[in-house]
Amino acid sequence: MNSKEFRQNAHQIVDWMADYLENIEKYPVKSLVKPKEIFDSLPTNPPSKGEEFSVIFQDFEQKILKGITHWQHPSFHAYFPANSSFPSILAEMLTATLGAQCMIWDTSPAAAELEELMMEWLKEMLALPSSWAGSIQDTASTSTLCAILTAREKITDFTINEKGFSENDKLVVYCSTETHSSVEKAAKIAGIGKRNVRKISVDAAFALKPDELEKSILLDIQNGLKPTIVVAAIGTTSSTAIDPVRKIGEICQKYTIWLHVDAAYAGTASVLPELRDKLNDGLELADSYVFNPHKWMMTNFDCTVYYVKSKELLIRTFEILPEYLKTKVGNQVNNYRDWGVQLGRRFRALKLWFVIRTYGVEGIQTKIRKDIEFAQKFKDELLAWGNAEILAPISLNLVCFRVKPSNLSWSEEKLNTFNQQVMENINYGGKAYLTHTKLNGKYVIRVVFGQTNVNETHVYNLLSLLKENFKANVEVI
Ligand SMILES: *Cc1c(COP(=O)(O)O)cnc(C)c1O
């Protein structure tokens, strides 16, 4: 493909992109293909000769697209959103065009310095402690791994990096039973082992119980183990529960334990001053903090923001300095390869810059406020309808509920099956996509209102779908 052809193809694709996003509601939200359907529809072997772009693009439209779940569809209420937006897409196009590999300052000074500035902007936007420093990572999972590795090195005085584990390094990680699976994964990767992850019980609001945490820590100390890190969640994945960060932080201080705060999803909501008492209380006690603009801040995947109280500890954990990476500017600049796991890094700050400038802080605040109102509206309508039960406090824009015929008394088991059936029927209908979780053994439907273009129409569409499918399934069962 030469430059002239690139230009033509690119114009065509940009038109396709705009059409796609304008008409996205015509697609079934969740892809309805069967396992292996896409794989089997494509040639088994790579082409020996180059193909025309028009042919490749036609295959994209005809063969690939039907295997895509449309995350940018406003009726995508599943999991948590992975939002995008026009400015973010434009920045990604430029990032791909520049193709810069931003491992150190020298390999693109603007990338390193824009990243540094975006980390400052976001701190101000979310009212996070001003002394924190940090960098953009690929995912919250990687950031939590960084936190566990740094805590591991701190507590062992950097000896595991040097010599590997010794007999005495019996490290323990704490989190709640509701904490994201990335904590256990990171404990496995860090060599701590999942048996040394203590899952502390939660209260009625699914938040970690601090007194249970302290008991568990004391027991481990008695048994000669080393409590290393506590991961507190602001907005758990199942129900957006908020752990009592201040109380947990005080316990961490008492026993000199690292406090990592996982606000992967909910962090974005700290742009709202009225929520900061709830979301930011005690954050000054945290050693590290992560949130994902790639979930709720209109910045397409991947873009995770990771802050630490001590950048010295972080850098000391990850620093490498082979001869071929030595530069003259060394200490005056941030070489982000030393701030995390990977060497090679994408230029992710550009899309944040485009997004924040396009919407402005107020634009982002308005969006987040609306989503929270949609969740309240949806809850009110569910309660007014009478055939639903709210199963977790609604802290932000996620509603956890189940449908339950008000005039029938069904067993828990029957309710579980019924809810699964109603949800799957909605998903296979293609008009909305919902996912579930289990809370106290109950099958719970989760509905998130967070997609970039979600509005009140989608709230009411979903209510109608729910009522229709409820009726159809009650009649069947
Ligand atoms: C989504 C989520 C994660 C994982 O995020 P990735 O960026 O996909 O690794 C971790 N913790 C919480 C609370 C989450 O909601």
How do the strands and helices of this protein lay out in sequence?
Elements (H helix, E strand, L loop, with lengths): L2 H20 L14 H5 L11 H12 L21 H13 L10 H18 L6 E5 L2 H16 L3 H5 L7 E6 L5 H8 L7 E4 L9 H13 L3 E8 L11 H11 L2 E5 L13 H4 L8 E4 L1 H4 L7 E5 L2 H8 L30 H37 L2 E3 L7 E6 L8 H18 L5 E5 L2 E7 L7 H21 L1
Parallel strand pairs: 2-3, 2-4, 4-5, 5-6
Antiparallel strand pairs: 1-7, 6-7, 8-9, 9-11, 10-11
Helix pairs in contact: 4-14, 5-14, 6-8, 6-13, 9-10, 14-16, 15-16
**End-to-end span in angstroms?**
58 Å
The percent range for helix content is 40-55%
**Low-pLDDT segments, ≥5 res:** none
In one word, what is the shape?
globular
Q: What would the average pLDDT be, to the nearest integer?
A: 96
Query: From N to C, what is the helix and strand string?
Result: HHHHHEHHEHEHEHEHEHEHHEEHEEH
Q: What hetero molecules are in the model?
A: pyridoxal-5'-phosphate
Class from helix and strand fractions? alpha/beta
Give a count of the beta strands, DSSP E runs of length 2 or more.
11
Total of helices: 16
Cα gyration radius (Å): 24 Å
What kind of sheet is the major sheet? 7 strands, mixed
